[in-house]
Specification:
Blueprint lengths: L6 E6 L6 H15 L3 E6 L13 E4 L3 E3 L7 E3 L7 H18 L3 E5 L9 H13 L5 E7 L7 H14 L2 E5 L21 E3 L20 E4 L7 H10 L10 E5 L5 H10 L4 E5 L4 H7 L2 E4 L3 H10 L3 E3 L9 H11 L4 E2 L7 H11 L13 H17 L1
Parallel strand pairs: 1-2, 1-6, 2-3, 6-7, 7-8, 8-9, 10-11, 10-13, 11-12, 13-14, 14-15
Antiparallel strand pairs: 4-5
GO molecular function, one term: transferase activity
InterPro entries: Glyco_trans_28_C (IPR007235)
Keywords: Transferase
């Protein structure tokens, strides 16, 4: 590295689930380990499970999706943000930029997502473009983006060409090329940097008995996971694994009333508890996993090489989880149940099919956190060294 370690400002805004925060925390871990000085600007509600160790964290007045349809944004009190809220939040964001004067600015998702927040992101990008010296500007995006209308795709290309020096694609080109979900990827090919998947380091299982032979049921943060868990509880006795222990890991965003409803359905052999930090270890030892198809969960499944049933989230035309799940199902790693077909009977049938799977380890790059730091430093040094 030439000169002093660069300063990096990382804008992160999660709207519904917690997957974005987990991936962001792992990225920060990789950047800090590489000697980068990181400040994280958080736009969503705090997620205590994930810490940005080694980084400074600035919390903006929080915003989240109103509901699973992503039809609008609301603040922590459930109110739609008015013009004054937007002005104050934008000014706070710009003030953080001025105070940090970053060498590298990384914005999570935008312009492939988070368009609802362009009222603060465009002023941030404009300010970065006129800063002296101008920081390296990068987008951090997962392997698959939501399908958009042609005019929205063209808008994203235009924004990348105008403002961004790099697009960190957190995936493996050989497994899922970015163009499979973003049809104009060839127009920004010179900016695409494939980092590999951002996952936790593969850990040795602390105990061979931890969760051994269990059915592990999870749904990320839980905001849209109730039906999956309810169907698993109701369908359990119709599966060939009815006599196994079924462990349900409940995310922090599942409402208390729905947790109570799950508890009432539980019987002997069922454990219902909060998400656990040793989830990867439980996954490595389980007989079968039942989950949604989010980025982090699917990479955890691949790392553990676990048999699985996957119910991808498809709310309001969401396609990202379905595309990734279908690709893995075609490789013999999971059985997919479509959200529209989910019930106790279909889930039980999928469990009985999935237990016969013989998943082989796939050669997929999962060193995304370390590689993201390496690629950013290389690009920064080539333009600012």
């Amino acid at each position: 590295m030439t000169g002093s370690n660069p300063r990096l400002l990382f804008y992160v805004q999660h709207l519904l689930g917690i997957g974005h925060i987990k991936r962001a925390a792992l990225l920060v871990q990789g950047w800090v380990s590489a000697g980068i000085r990181v400040t994280v600007v958080m736009g969503g509600e705090s997620v205590p499970q994930f810490r940005f160790t080694g980084a400074r964290v600035v919390q903006l007045p929080s915003l989240r999706a109103r509901d699973e349809s992503f039809s609008g944004l609301v603040d922590s009190a459930g109110r739609e943000p008015d013009q004054l809220f937007k002005q104050q939040r934008t000014q706070m964001l710009l003030s953080v930029f001025e105070a940090e004067r970053p060498d590298i600015l990384v914005i999570e998702s935008y312009p492939f997502g988070r368009r609802q927040l362009r009222w603060e992101l465009l002023p941030l990008l404009e300010r970065a473009m006129t800063s002296e010296p101008r920081p390296l500007i990068a987008c951090s995006v997962r392997d698959i983006v939501q399908g958009r209308r042609p005019e929205r795709v063209a808008e994203a290309v235009s924004l990348i060409e105008r403002y961004f020096d790099a697009v960190l694609v957190h995936g493996d080109r050989q497994f899922v090329p970015f163009g499979s979900s973003f049809p104009e990827a060839d127009k920004i090919e010179d900016r695409l940097l494939y980092t590999g998947y951002v996952t936790e380091s593969k850990q040795e299982v602390g105990s061979e008995s931890l969760g051994k032979g269990e059915v592990l049921v999870s749904a990320g943060g839980g905001a849209v996971g109730f039906k999956l868990m309810e169907s698993a509880l109701r369908g359990r006795t119709a599966t060939v694994l009815a006599n196994a222990t079924w462990r349900f890991l409940v995310g922090p965003n599942l409402p208390g009333s729905r947790r109570d409803a799950l508890q009432q359905l539980a019987s002997d052999g069922v454990i219902i508890e909060p998400l656990r930090p040793d989830f990867p270890q439980l996954l490595a030892n389980c007989r079968l996993s039942i989950s949604q198809g989010g980025y982090n969960t699917m990479m955890d499944l691949l790392t553990a090489n676990a048999r699985s049933v996957v119910v991808p989230f498809e709310g309001e035309g969401e396609t990202e989880q379905l595309e990734r799940s279908v690709r893995l199902a075609a490789l013999g790693h999971c059985v997919v149940v479509r959200e529209s077909e989910l019930c106790a009977q279909t889930l039980a049938a999928a469990v009985n099919d999935a237990i016969e799977l013989q998943p082989a380890e796939l050669s997929i790059d999962v060193d995304g956190a370390r590689r993201s730091a390496e690629l950013l430093l290389q690009r920064w040094e080539s333009t600012h060294g």
